[in-house]
Amino acid sequence: MIDFNIAGYLIFAFVSSITPGPNNFMLFSYGKQFGYKDSTKLLLGIFFGFIVLLYASGYGIAQVITNNPTIGLVLKIVSSIWLLYLAFVLSKLNSEISVESKSKIGFYQGFFMQFINPKAWIMALSGASAFMPHLDSIHLSVFIFAFMFGLVGIPCMIVWISFGDLISKLLKSEKANRIVGYTLFLLMILSIVMIWL
Questions:
Q1: Nearest in space to 40 (alpha carbons), one of 89, 104, 122
Q2: How much is the pTM?
Q3: Overall number of domains in the chain
Q4: What are the start-end ranges of the H helices in the chain?
């Protein structure tokens, strides 16, 4: 018998995956700049990086790391620096950048970003502590926990990429693109501030 609040977990996974955060801002920007097809490497990097983080949380490894004050402080500092860098990159994406631009962020950047993404840590740790299924096999429990989050997360990421792609078709002027860039910059700065609150 499975002791698992499936409905509650799916709602949690959906709400936490669809709401704004560093991953979704990045997916939106890349969908806007490079289109859906060209954003798939980034999407897959984010997906697999987050799956690894979910596994770490399921097995309790992430809890040990975040409970260490020194490691927690280092994660906050590295996260803030990385998100600040992303804020500048995303704010400069505009209609004049070619699809071959070196400012692209691909699979590996998306993958490793998960380990310094504060929202990803919160999602993984909160999900593991509140919704982890209790089965005879810890390995099966962790697999179900990560697999179901992934099933919900992929469509949410596709929504953000598609939204960016749609915006790129609607906003053609340089001024409109700058406004979107500045908005993303401010939202990323807000994400950094929230780390320290």
A1: 104
A2: 0.78
A3: 1
A4: 6-18, 22-34, 40-58, 61-66, 69-92, 107-113, 118-131, 138-170, 174-195
Q: Would you say residue 103 lies in a domain?
A: yes
Rounded Cα distance, 30 and 25, in Å: 9
Domain that holds residue 93: 6-195
| Residue 122 Cα distances to 44, 45, 83, angstroms | 20, 19, 16
Q: Which DSSP string corresponds to 73-100?
A: HHHHHHHHHHHHHHHHHHHH--TTS-TT
Mean pLDDT by 10 residues, the chain (197 residues): 72 87 85 80 93 92 76 77 75 50 72 87 85 85 91 93 84 71 77 71
CA–CA separation, 57 vs 54, rounded Å? 5
CB 91 within 8 A of CB 186: no
From residue 179, how far is each of 1, 61, 188 by CA, in Å?
A: 53, 41, 14
Query: Is residue 52 a part of any domain in this protein?
Result: yes
- Opening angle at CA 76, ends 148 and 122, nearest 5: 20
